[in-house]
Structures are given as structure tokens and as C-alpha cells.
Amino acid sequence: MSIEVRHMSKTFGRFRVLRDVSLRVETGELVALLGPSGSGKTTLLRIIAGLEQPDAGSGPILFHDEDVADQRVGDRRVGFVFQHYALFRHMTVFENVAFGLRVRPRRLRPSPRQIREKVEQLLHLVQLDFLADRYPHQLSGGQRQRVALARALAMEPKVLLLDEPFGSLDAKVRQELRGWLRRLHDEIRLTSVFVTHDQEEALELADRVVVMNEGRIEQIGSPDEVFHQPKTEFVISFLGQVNRFHGRLERGKVHFASLQWETPEWEQAEACPAHVFIRPHDLQVAASSNGQPALSACVQHIHSAGPKVRLELATDGGQKLLAEITQEQYRTEPLTVGSRVFLTPQNIKVFPYPSDST
Amino acid sequence: MAAAVVSKSHTDFRGRTSARCLTEPWPIRLTLILGTVLFLGLFLVLPLAAVFGQALAKGWGAYWSALREPDTLSSIWLTLLTTAICVPIGTVFGLTAAWCLGKFDFRGRKLFLAMLDLPLSVSPVVAGLMFILVFGQHGWLGGWLEAHGVRIIFGVPGVVLVTLFVTAPYVARELIPLMHAQGTEAEEAAQVLGASGWQTFWRVTLPQVKWGLLYGIILCNARAMGEFGAVSVVSGHIRGKTNTMPLQVEILYNEYDFVGAFATASVLAGLALVTLVLKTILEHKAAHEMALAQASGPETAEIGTSEQTSAVYGDPASRPMRG
Fold this sequence. Notes:
heterodimer; A: alpha+beta; CATH 2.40.50.140; 6-stranded mixed β-sheet; B: mainly alpha; MetI-like fold; disordered C terminus
């Protein structure tokens, strides 16, 4: 079942949360809505579910090319997992999962035996069969999350929507559940959309990532695309850490700091100022100059506890930079706080901007 | 002796350790404890015992016959009738008001909340007078009602109306903080799962507040049975017709019928004791409900929600991306 929204806008009071957003999610896809808080990602999810009414003049909400904008929440057959799970605290795990089946109109309601079988099967799927008689407050965060998921799946939804599914969990459980959700999705192939502010989560889990900012979609693409071919400055700076320079674009070359770099993609552009972005791992660090043009900087902090060693640096002009080197290089090169190093970019990303806008 | 107790018990009955440096010296503790016991005995236990003592002063026979007086029986009946009308109405009103004020935010909500406290803050006598002003013979609606043969003041309807007024806030006041803490996520979840509005109310909203609701009903019930001031103003003290139990007690007492007065009072006191026991049990359950609401509510459960901070390292002169 595909999901499509067209020209969706939403205003809360004077605050425009969504500005003319259009998006299509293909059948069986797992899509992440990624953005900082206030970017409108949760509102978009709630509009798809029917928990929020879009502004008048917004386009249709299509499930499998059928407009559901006028359907009630309960008729849309959407599985929704809330950020704080919203489990019914007065019901056992079993009753929580059975709820969606028990509230069906009598002629559509399965028999008590069918309900029990269905619930047991779902609890087995989320690996919680042994907790059927517990109450939500007796469960851990990760277990509650899985109950919420089983409850959403019980009604045999056409699409699955998850609002910050791992937001309230601690780092280790989050990592585990992420892998588990990916496997579950591969197994049941239900069209799914989840909201997250964690870029790592989005890049690791999703088939496609929708990067949102200030109520607009900045870029839609595979995790690889949004990470390696960011279309906007927001995307490159939101997806991980990055160094930024002011530069100038002229005749297919960008000049920044003391360096210049060939930019064939901007060959045709007129001379204009530009921002130059370099990821920390794209800065090659050397303790001595090899004669090639390089940025000279001074090491200020070394964070060596991790898979990579992160260096905080300052150029002679006082600009702070971040670089990453391997543990191996760190062991062989004589780097200490205060050392002078030479930085050579391996890969850069240039965004020209009209001179009057900054 | 008290000192010996301290040196032995470093853990109290709940297993918490109590450090010696946190307790007061024994003379102070003894004085405080004795003072409290004396106060409670003098002002609570003794008077309550006196009520039952006086009621039975002339034996069980006199007690029973005093209670079987037609006027007294009628007052008991009227009190039960008033309670039976006011408590269900107060409950429905309280539930709807709490649902509206606890789950939604709208213009005028604060004003509504303040209005809800009016019956609690205004003196019952004033409450009674307010109703006379509106429904009395010379009141705003009195003349018209009289012309249509409806008598409210100095009649049972008046008693019921003022009791409704003074008992209206109890259920709502108990439920508003609870429903506010619970939020609307559970209801949204029920809706998404296909429940109708009616199913959502009966299966989700109501069960989540049941102990708080019962607690509010108990308080409402206690006030409905015990109300004196407001009822006294509007009832007209017509024997066997418009006297409730508290009014009947006063009348009998003023006529030096002590056995009758205290026998009736003992029924009220007995009801109060039952209420007290129920209240204690429900208080505990309701507190648990509230704790659950707060533990799994949207305000908490923020463990580990550290917003992703993606630092841009750039020249210090550079301004924010989208100015």
C-alpha cells in the first residue's frame, strides 16, 4: 500500500508547521522523516494518520491512490506507534494488543478464540509471549515499545507509522531495537514511515530518508544519497559534523582559506561567494608538510576514546576545525595538544550563494 | 526509654534507615507525641464517643424508638433521597467538566476552573440565600414559578438544588489533575485502533480514572448527606417534609430531646465513619493511579531523548545558515 500526500500545509496559530509538502512512499518501503524538533516531521506523520487536520487548501492524502483525507482516524487502518507508547495502563499486555480486535463492530469482530490466537501470535512475533499478563508499568521501555508495535499490528494495518520509535530508550536498547525493527520490516514488508531526529538512526534503518527543516522537505533520497550528495547546506550540516569555510567561486575553482579546489560542476557559474563544507574524515592530517598546499592548524583537544580519533583544531586565523584520523595513524604520528599539523582536504562540497543573502 | 528505642532502631517499619542525627532529642519528641495524642483524643475521639454515648444513654430500646419517630424517619428518607439525586448528577457533571477542563486547553479555561471552586469558597449560608434570591417568592423566578404551581424554596426541590450546588465541585476537582496528567495520547491510540467515541470513553478514559472518580464520589456523598447551612436556609424546617438529618438533629436538640438528637446524629456519624474507611482505601488507590499517570505520561519518559546536535565547525565570522 503506497502513501502519498500532496501540497500539505499546516498552521498552528501563527506558526506554520508544514509548508506545501508533497511526498510519496512506495509499497513496502521503510521511510524516515528526519529533522530537528520543530521541522514538522511529527505533524506530517499525524496528518497521514488522521490525528491532525491539514489546513484548508491542502492536497489529498492517498493510500494506494485512494483519497482518505475525509476518512475518520479509525477507518484509515493505520498502525500508529506513539512516542511514549500510549499503552492502556489499566490493561494487561494481552488486552492492550487485543484492543483493536475487540472494538470492531460485531459482524467484523473475530471470535474470542481467534482473538486469543492472533494476540499470542503477535506477542510471539515481538518476543514477549511470556509477559502477556503483565501491566505496562511492569515492563521496561524496550518491552513497552514492542507491545505498542504488536498492538498496532493486531488491527492488520495497511501502513505503519512510528513517531520517534526509539526516542525514549537508552542508547543500548535503542541500538538493539533498531536492528530488530529492520528485520521485522524485511519480514512483513509493511509500508512504514518513522519520524526521528537521530540522523544515525535514519541512515541505518531507512530505505529512503526525507530530510525536513522548517516545515519543508530539503531532500529525499537513499541514505547514501543524502549523506554523500547532500543537496542543501542544511542537509550536509544536519547529517553529522562538518567544517565550513567561506570561499569564493570563480571559473570552476573555489578559493577558500589558503587553498583552491577544482569544481568542474560549477564551471558555468558566475563568480560568487560560496560555502565550502568538509567532513572531519575528509581532512587528511599530517604532522609535517609534504610541500603540497595545506591548511596549517594547531591541535587543541584529542578525543581518542572511540573507533576513530577526533581532533579539535584551530587555524592561525582562529577558526575551529574538526578532523578524524584512524587509531593506527594516531599511534604512529607524534600528535599532542599544541602540535602543529597540516590539513589537506580529500573531498569538499561547495554551495554558492548570492552575495546579498548572508 | 525513648533514647533506647533510637539506639536500637536504625530502620523504621518500611525498611528505611533513619540516622540518629536526624531525630530530635527525646523530651521534644515525647512532648510532641503527647500533645498530638491529647489533642486528637480531646477534639476527635471523645466527642465522637459522646455522640454514641448520649444516643444510648437510656438504652437500646429508647435509641430504636427515637429513630423510629416518623419525623426522624422522614428526615433520614429525605437525606437519602437528596443524596441519591445529587451524587449521580454531580458525578456526571464532574466527569464531563473534568474531561473538558483536564484534557483540553481553550480560552476561558482558567475562568471555568475558578468558577468551579465557587461552591467551596462561598459560605453555605450565602449559597442558600443565593437560591432564595433566584427561586424565592419575591425572587427573580419565584413569582413565575409560583404562578405555575411549582414550589422550590421551602420544599424538597430547594433542598436538592442547594445540595447540588454545594456538592458540584467534588468529583470534578478530584479528576481534573488526574486527567490533565494522563493527557490524550491513550484516547488517540484508541481512536487509531478503530474505537468509536463511546468505546473510547468506556474502555479507556473511564477505567483510567476509576479510583479517582470513586474517591470524588465518596467526598461528594459525604457533603451531600452532611450539608447543614445551605439546606437550612432553603428548607423552611417543615417537620416530616423538608427536614434532612442534620436539620432534624438541630431541632430535636433545641427541644431537649437528647436521645432523639444524638440517635439521629449517631446515624450520621456512623455514615461518616464508613465514608472515612472507604476514603482511606480509595485515597491509596487513587494516588497509585496518579503515580502511574505521571510515570508513563508525556511529561516524563524523557530518558535518553538527547536532541541530535550537529555542530557546524566554521569560521567564527560565519552567521547562521538561514538568517
